[in-house]
Design brief:
By secondary structure, this protein is mainly alpha-helical. The protein has helices spanning 2-23, 33-48, 64-71, 102-108, 116-137, 141-157, 168-187, 194-208, 219-232, 235-251, 253-263, 283-290, 293-311, 315-335, 346-373, 375-379, and strands at residues 86-89, 94-97. Strands 1-2 form a two-stranded antiparallel sheet. It starts with a helix and ends with a helix.
């Protein structure tokens, strides 16, 4: 066990080194409109400080955005009405960037011109840390193999499809931490889980600042905690829901502020066009997901959840319920969203899988401990 654990750990480090080598050759000018806009938000933060949350196109007085668009060969770089990923807000009488401010803020932590690579390296190192944590929490050969395979897959996903959008790496970090804390929360007695569920709420709220659809990552938690309160009618169940909700709202404050400044109201969207269309079941979108790695991860999550429900008792069923509800809500939303990307359901996939991984490791670890303490009962 120890030798295999160490070998797996070195293997994960080698994969991290491979990822960093691959990322070291990436360019920040790859011709993707989203990239340009995220970098523009970072530029605004570095130029104006927190006031850079205002993405009014008039603040491009140094031609940063125009130069970026020219660099990628965008023909209409000088037409404000045709600027990519910006929306005309009639109520505010201005063009603003449609994305929430979190990804731009994360990029702004690094020096201009060398922002993407360090952000991805940081995200990869975070995923490695939690993969190693899972590896060293495994208490039997099957758990160790599970943790190793999961760790290698999680690190591989940090290149593809994470490279598709700068919003994915910070989201992946949040999913790993939130998944671990969710498993720990459901392993705790009700009175000892308040801090954990508050941290989960805060993290998922923070994730909304990276990608607005991450809002749906909270759906399963809200429904689970509401159901738990309705069934138990206890003070602890009420406080769990309250702490999660308050922490989640605190986490999304930057996006609410950005909406108020850019769209005129905290609850008005800066998105427009196809992103603002109502839900619609689209056969083309469904087929795109069915042949994509995202659906494979979703299927694994669903099968794993069903196994956890059937094979275990007690809190394992609570983990299965929470994950199943979260998967269902997110699946309904994204399968009825009118466009497809190779990363849209990666966040709910990874949040679910990290939660299932740590919950499974904890449960199997408890069984190993019980077998060691009561060997005769285990063999009966």
């Amino acid at each position: 066990m120890k030798i295999f654990r160490l070998l797996c750990g070195f293997g994960l480090l080698a994969l991290l080194a491979s990822n960093i080598w691959t990322m070291s050759r990436w360019s920040e000018s790859r011709g993707v409109y989203d990239d340009v806009c995220y970098l523009r938000q970072a530029h605004l933060f570095q130029k104006y400080g927190f006031s850079g949350i205002d993405t009014n196109i008039v603040f491009d007085d140094d031609d940063y955005l125009k130069n970026k668009l020219k660099a990628i060969g965008y023909a209409e770089w000088n037409d404000v009405k045709r600027v990519p990923c910006h929306t005309w807000i009639p109520a505010a009488d201005k063009y603003v960037m449609q994305y929430p401010p979190g990804t731009g803020f994360a990029l702004a932590l690094f020096r201009e011109g060398f922002q993407v690579i360090p952000l991805y390296v940081l995200a990869n190192m975070t995923i490695l840390a939690f993969a190693l944590l899972a590896l060293f929490r495994a208490r039997d050969p099957a758990s160790l193999a599970l943790a190793a395979v999961f760790g290698f897959a999680a690190l591989y996903l940090m290149i593809n499809p994470s490279k598709a959008s700068y919003s994915v790496p910070p989201t992946m970090m949040v999913c790993a931490v939130a998944g671990f804390l969710t498993a720990r929360f459901l392993a705790r007695p009700p009175r000892r889980g308040l801090l954990l569920i508050a941290l989960v709420g805060l993290l998922i709220g923070v994730s909304v600042n990276f990608r607005l659809p991450n809002l749906f990552l909270a759906a399963g938690y809200c429904l689970y905690l509401a159901g738990a309160f309705l069934l138990a009618r206890s003070k602890e169940a009420f406080l769990h829901g309250l702490w999660f909700g308050v922490s989640f709202l605190i986490g999304i404050v930057p996006t609410l502020i950005a909406n108020a400044i850019n769209a005129g109201s905290p609850f008005s969207t800066t998105y427009g066009g196809v992103d603002a269309l109502p839900p619609d079941l689209n056969t083309g979108v469904l087929l795109s997901y069915l042949v994509d790695v995202q659906f494979t991860l979703l299927a694994i999550s669903a099968i794993w959840t069903a196994w956890l429900w059937r094979a275990n008792q007690g809190r394992a069923k609570h983990v299965a319920i929470l994950v199943a509800v979260n998967l269902a809500v997110n699946l309904i939303f994204f399968m009825t969203h009118p466009i497809f990307t190779p990363y849209y359901i990666i966040p709910i996939d990874m949040l679910s899988l990290w939660t299932l991984l740590f919950a499974t490791l904890d449960l199997r670890g408890e069984r190993v401990a019980e077998s060691a303490a009561f060997p005769q009962a285990a063999n009966a």
